[in-house]
Structures are given as structure tokens and as C-alpha cells.
Specification:
By secondary structure, this protein is of the alpha/beta class. The protein has one domain: NAD(P)-binding Rossmann-like Domain (Rossmann fold, 3-Layer(aba) Sandwich). Helix content is about 45%, strand content about 15%. It has six helices and seven strands; from the N terminus they run E-H-E-H-E-H-E-H-E-H-E-H-E. The protein has a seven-stranded parallel sheet with strand order 3-2-1-4-5-6-7, sandwiched between helices. Helix 1 packs across helix 6 and helix 3 packs parallel to helix 4. The protein starts with 7 loop residues before the first strand and ends in an 8-residue tail after the last strand. It binds NADP nicotinamide-adenine-dinucleotide phosphate. The site of NADP nicotinamide-adenine-dinucleotide phosphate has 29 residues, from helix 1.
Length: about 240
């Protein structure tokens, strides 16, 4: 069974880590993908891997999610190529560095908010009328277990993720009458380049992708609202 065959999905942060793993997992079903990230070479590489996994030629566009006009242009171009999305996954995110509030420059704050919060807002805002017109859809936002606890030196990242959590929670209620499912995913520590050093004891990005795939592949009348998971070594709960 390939529940996502020919399903159109727009995915951010596809060049590496969790996003790349999600792209490759849904490609095995034959999903039609629009992918982005800044690293053009890595994007070409994931597009090749998606094709090799059996999916149709993906639409791939490198740009910076901090650029609001570029985010909207990506949505328009992907829509033109593939049609309106059935699934939108806001996966891309970053934490510039660990720093207490007084060491964060205002420009750094603005950029963190633009990538982690404004870009998902712009993409949900663009996808909503298309999903409404097609009779439904599914939005999946990759949050973090930082939404469930507070750690020093992570203030702006935590604020951005908690901001996206709130936006997602409200959008879930707004979108429900239009048969649009909205899922919030809260991964714990995952062994990707997001982290300053390797953590083989943490989740594999492929394991996170399996969890996201399960959320996407469940029966359509079932909406996963919140899903939290952590590596067994993590104790911050
Ligand atoms: N790793 C963890 O422990 C962990 C835990 C909980 C939640 N998360 C969340 O999971 C998501 C994926 O993280 P990951 O661990 O896979 O991190 P990652 O390996 O660093 O990958 C991040 C992805 O986001 C893209 N991205 C980052 N900044 C961007 C920008 N300004 N414009 C466009 N694309 C940008 C990157 O692409 P380019 O570099 O090519 O632009 C890359 O594809 C993030 O939202 C993160 O906050 C991660």
C-alpha cells in the first residue's frame, strides 16, 4: 500500500537532516514533491535521491526562508508546477547559537523569528485557500520538545517554536471546518547537523521521518493534533 502515491506535498528544509529523511520516505510512495533549502547542491542531491526512490521529478528551489518575498514566490512556482498541495510540511528551522538574551543582537532575533515562525505563517497562509478549494489538506509543523520545557541560552529559538505552536494550535481550529488537518510534531533530540556535535544516542532523522510518515498515512478521518517523542536517553520531561 502506498497511501501517498501521487500526493502533492510541499516541504521546507529538505536539503539535510529530518527534512531530507522525510522527502526520501514519502518518495518511496511516489509522492509529488516541492522541496526547498538554501544549499543548491544539496537540493540537487536530494532531488536525485527522490527520483531514484521512485517518485516523479520533484520541483526544487533554493532560497532563504528569511526572505518573505522568496517564500511566497516558492509557493507560487511550486503550485504552478505541481498544482495545489495536499500536504504542507513546515520542517525547516534553526537555532543560531546558544546565548542568553542579553547576548542576542536584535538582527539575530529578527532572523530567527523570520525563519522559524514567519516562513511557516506565510506558507500556511498561502496554502489555506488552495486546500479549502480542493476540499481538504494536511499541514504538519515540526516544532520541538523545547515547547514543553525552558532551557537557559535557548530563549529566541524557544520563543519562535512556542510562537509557532500557538499559531498552529489556533490554525487547527480555524482550518478544521474546511477538512484541513493540522498536526504539531514535537521531536526530542535528533542526531543532525542542527546540533554542534554528533549525538549517536539521539534519534535518527529517519526515525523522525517514520513518525511523520505515520501521521500522514493514517486514515483521513483521524487527525493527529500533537505528537511528542524523544530518544530514550532524554530526561527533560
Ligand atoms: N535536531 C534536533 O535535535 C531537533 C529537535 C527538535 C526539533 N528540531 C527541528 O526539526 C527541524 C529540522 O531540523 P534538523 O535537525 O533536520 O536540522 P538541520 O539538519 O540543521 O536541517 C535544517 C534544514 O532547514 C533548512 N534551513 C535552515 N535555515 C534555513 C533558511 N534560512 N532558509 C531556508 N532553509 C533553511 C536547512 O537547509 P539549508 O541549510 O540548505 O538552507 C536544512 O534543510 C527544525 O525545525 C528543528 O528546529 C530539531
Amino acid at each position: 500500500m502506498e497511501p501517498l502515491r501521487d500526493t502533492t506535498m510541499f516541504l521546507t528544509g529538505a536539503t539535510r537532516g529530518i527534512g531530507r529523511a522525510i522527502a526520501l520516505r514519502v518518495a518511496r510512495d511516489g509522492a509529488r514533491l516541492a522541496l526547498c533549502g538554501r544549499d543548491a547542491a544539496a537540493l540537487r542531491d536530494v532531488a536525485d535521491a527522490v527520483r531514484a526512490a521512485g517518485a516523479p521529478e520533484p520541483f526544487a528551489q533554493p532560497f532563504d526562508l528569511a526572505d518573505a518575498a522568496a517564500v511566497e514566490a516558492f509557493y507560487r512556482a511550486a503550485r504552478e508546477r505541481l498544482g495545489p498541495p495536499a500536504i504542507l510540511i513546515n520542517n525547516a528551522g534553526y537555532n543560531a547559537r546558544k546565548a542568553p538574551l542579553w547576548d542576542v543582537a536584535p538582527g539575530e532575533f529578527d532572523r530567527m523569528l523570520a525563519v522559524n515562525l514567519r516562513a511557516p505563517f506565510l506558507l500556511m497562509r498561502a496554502a489555506f485557500p488552495d486546500m479549502r478549494a480542493r476540499g481538504g489538506g494536511h499541514v504538519v509543523n515540526i516544532l520541538s520538545t523545547v515547547c514543553h520545557f525552558d532551557n537557559e541560552a535557548m530563549g529566541v529559538y524557544t520563543a519562535a517554536k512556542k510562537g509557532l505552536m500557538g499559531l498552529t494550535d489556533v490554525f487547527r481550529k480555524e482550518a478544521r471546518p474546511f477538512n484541513i488537518r493540522v498536526s504539531s510534531i514535537y521531536p526530542g533530540g535528533t542526531d543532525t547537523a542542527f546540533r554542534p556535535s554528533p549525538r549517536p544516542d539521539y534519534l535518527k532523522p529517519e526515525s523522525v521521518a517514520d513518525a511523520v510518515y505515520a501521521v500522514l498515512a493514517l486514515p483521513a478521518e483521524l487527525a493527529v493534533h500533537h505528537m511528542t517523542f524523544r530518544p530514550m536517553v532524554e530526561t527533560n520531561f
